[in-house]
Predict the structure.
Amino acid sequence: MNQTSDASRFEFETEWIRGYARCYGCDVLYDETDLRRQRLFLVDILNIFREGFVVYGDKLEARGARWRIEGPTDDGRLFHVDVTVISEIYYVEIERITKEKGRSDERYSAA
C-alpha cells in the first residue's frame, strides 16, 4: 500500500476524523479490553486520530464507512486503528487496533 498517495486520496476523511477528535473524541465507542491489550488509553487513540491519516476507506452497504487510520501515540508508537464511521450522526466505533512494528514515518516525527 502506497501510504503517500493513500493519505492524499483520503484527505476529506482525515480532516473529518481530526475534527471529530478535537470536538467529540470522548464519544468514541471502544472495547476497553482492546485498549488494555495494546497498552493504550483513550488519550492515545485521540492522538492517533488528531495526528494520523486515513489510509483506507470503504463504503458499507448500509449507511456509513469503514476507515483505517494510521498514526502515532503521544510517545511515538505507530498504530493502525480500524473504525466504523457514520459521519452525519458523529458515530465512530473502534473495530480493531494493530501496532505497526519496526516502522517510523517522517510525517509523524515532524509533528
Observations:
- Residues 62 and 86 are 10 Å apart (CA to CA).
- The first strand starts at residue 53 and ends at 59.
